[in-house]
Design goal:
By secondary structure, this protein is an alpha/beta fold. The protein is built from nine helices and twelve strands.
Length: 400
């Protein structure tokens, strides 16, 4: 969010976007499109597909996807995995690392001794360089190698010569990495976002205990009012990831949740004259979208919109439809002062009926968006999702 602010005021003139789609995922999309479309900004987008952000770019660099490149990734539980290349990238697509290394070579970046600044040449050598960065730190990777990952599968950091098998559990002995002389940062004030100073931290935590902060309730940054009486919250559905650049190209996932919907409670639907599947307009001070209504078990006074639905797969492309469907057309430009996470979860909104629907909403029925009524068709994978497993001997004599 701060980078976008710098682009907006002109202090960033070149922006390189890799593997994300801010023209759908960031709040207040009208503003985001305006920022990314500035003449003074040179926008480079590196991605698998021509996303809404890529369509705004001056240069698009085609990137390889996970099965088309080799490299490691680390789960949230600290497990490091090796993902091997299965197929060659199509056309001119290249792994992200190859693109960045080529760029570094063309810049002729040098260290203080006149040697190439970037000394690695592929994913494994880059991993070895990262291991040296992690040596002696809480996330020590130095005991992990590509060979061990191929032999054993996932390994959890910290893992070093003294702990070659990795560490399953942390803090089991009540020992934390919060010692003032060891920790790498001291936290932030939850209200202002100001960093805690070293002396403040040492006075607060001299014994290196775990620091647990209680966050007091803060009222929404945009409270409801007479013309916007609903609290709008946005989020995800089980069947899509991020802005659907990959999941919408999976026929079954797209069939399970093919279009945007708005959820409201039974009471609020009745007050607005809405029935399941009716077309409604959701509006905030920043814009409006139209979506089919799903009457669900959501709390009265609250509306929910899934944020995944941008415009890349519509005739409008990256330009918003005048009756748009991207939830972030409605969210506000504000963010948490400590985490810098945009405030997607609260906005003041209005809800109005546009026209009768032609059947129930196409929202999934087997997740949190389950309908209040039990007589709607269930979301199912269909025969294409079924798999047969054979045990024993196949007719040709081989095991199946």
């Amino acid at each position: 969010m701060q980078m976008i602010r710098y682009v907006e005021d002109g202090s960033i003139r070149l922006l390189w976007v890799s593997g994300t789609n801010p023209a759908v995922s960031l709040p207040e999309l009208g503003r985001i499109r305006s920022v990314l479309s500035q003449e003074r900004l040179f926008l480079v987008v590196q991605d698998l597909f021509l996303t809404e952000t890529a369509q705004l770019a001056d240069v698009v660099l085609p990137a390889a996807t996970w099965g088309e490149k080799t490299g490691t990734f680390t789960n949230a539980d600290r497990t490091v995995h090796l993902s091997e290349k299965a197929v060659e990238p199509p056309g001119e697509a290249r792994p992200d690392l190859d693109i960045f290394l080529d760029y570094a070579r063309r810049l002729d970046l040098r260290d203080k001794d006149g040697q190439p600044l970037v000394k690695w040449h592929d994913a494994e050598s880059a991993f070895e360089a990262w291991k040296e960065c992690s040596r002696g730190r809480p996330c020590d990777y130095t005991g992990i190698t590509y060979t061990k990952l191929r032999e054993r599968g996932g390994i959890q950091w910290p893992c070093n010569e003294d702990n070659p098998d990795g560490t399953e559990r942390l803090y089991a002995g009540g020992t934390f990495w919060s010692d003032p002389e060891y920790c790498e940062s001291y936290g932030r004030d939850l209200i202002t976002g100001a960093p805690v100073e070293p002396q403040e931290y040492k006075a607060m935590n001299p014994s290196a205990k775990a620091v647990i902060k209680a966050a007091a309730y803060q009222p929404p940054h945009e409270p409801t009012r007479e013309d916007y009486p609903f609290l709008l919250t946005t989020g995800r559905t089980l069947f899509h990831f991020h802005t659907r650049t990959k999941t919408a190209r999976s026929p079954q996932l797209q069939a399970a949740a093919p279009e945007v919907w708005v959820e409201c409670s039974t009471r609020d639907a009745a007050a607005a004259g809405l029935r399941e599947g009716d077309l409604a307009e959701v509006s905030t001070p920043r814009g409006s979208i139209r979506a089919a209504v799903r009457i669900s078990g959501i709390r009265d006074g609250v509306l929910f919109l899934p944020f995944h639905y941008g415009y890349w797969d519509t005739p409008a492309g990256h330009e918003p439809d005048p009756h748009g469907r991207a939830a972030n057309e409605l969210t506000l430009t504000d963010w948490d002062p400590a985490s810098k996470q945009p405030i997607f979860k609260t906005a003041a909104a209005a809800l109005h009926r546009i026209e009768a629907g032609h059947g129930p909403s196409l929202a999934p029925t087997n997740t949190a968006s389950a309908p209040a009524s039990n007589d709607l068709p269930r979301t199912a994978g269909g025969v294409e999702a079924e798999a047969d497993e054979y045990c024993g001997t196949a007719p040709e004599g081989g095991a199946r």
